Amino acid sequence: MNSKEHTLPDSQEDSSGNQFLNHICEEMLTQVSRSEIQQLSPATLAYLGDAVYELYVRMHYLLPPKRIDRYHLSVVGQVRAEMQALHLRSLAPHLTDNELEIVRRGRNAATGRPKRVDPDIYQQATSLETLIGYLYLTDEARLTELLQKLNLEK
Predict the structure, then answer these.
(1) Terminal-to-terminal C-alpha distance of the chain
(2) Active-site residue, from 14, 50, 69, 118
(3) What is this structure's pTM?
(4) What whole-number distance in Å separates Cα of residue 143 and Cα of residue 122?
(5) Residue 109 belongs to what domain range?
(6) What is the CATH number of the domain that holds 104?
(7) Quick check: 111 and 41 in contact, CB under 8 A?
(8) What confidence score (pLDDT) does residue 57 get?
């Protein structure tokens, strides 16, 4: 290991995995200003949100221990565009006006022609990823609150 070895925080209260992300990214996030975040395109926020969402889902399925192929099947089932669209619809009643605006921007940013999924589903999935990316940068407590509302099967 290198001299800047990362260790897990002592508290294990936050089961979402956000605590570990905070520990690793804390300095980087404090260097990003609110105005810089506003300059990020919805596609960029979706790019970040996709990674945060997948890490959250992977952390959710980590316990109890199982074979790697079982982890993979569980995670793939949740990160598919169809499930992301379903999750967005389940969260919609809980979103603020500002969050709904971020979702709208994300939907409008979904460009290209998806190969295997309906374009409306793809837009909804991109909208969810955009919201997650935005909240990751601006309000992790709110992000955690919304992610915990997702109905992820065990």
Answers:
(1) 34
(2) 50
(3) 0.80
(4) 21
(5) 65-154
(6) 1.10.1520.10
(7) no
(8) 94
Query: What's the pLDDT score for residue 6?
Result: 40
The number of beta carbons lying within 10 Å of the beta carbon of residue 95 is 16
9-63, pLDDT tens digit by residue? 444 444 455 566 566 566 566 667 778 888 999 999 999 999 999 999 999 998 8
**Which CA distances in Å does 98 have to 26, 115, 132, 138, 154?**
24, 31, 13, 12, 31
Tens-digit pLDDT profile for residues 63-73: 888 899 998 99
Measured distance CA(41)–CA(74) in Å, rounded: 30
Residue 139 known to be catalytic: no
Q: Is residue 7 part of a domain?
A: no
Residue 37 covered by a domain: no
Closest CA to 93 of 135, 12, 140, 149: 149
Task: Supply 25's token pair.
Answer: 């990214």
Nearest Cα to 19, choosing from 51, 56, 71? Answer: 56
Report whether 82 contacts 121 (CB < 8 A).
yes
Structure tokens at 145: 């609150």
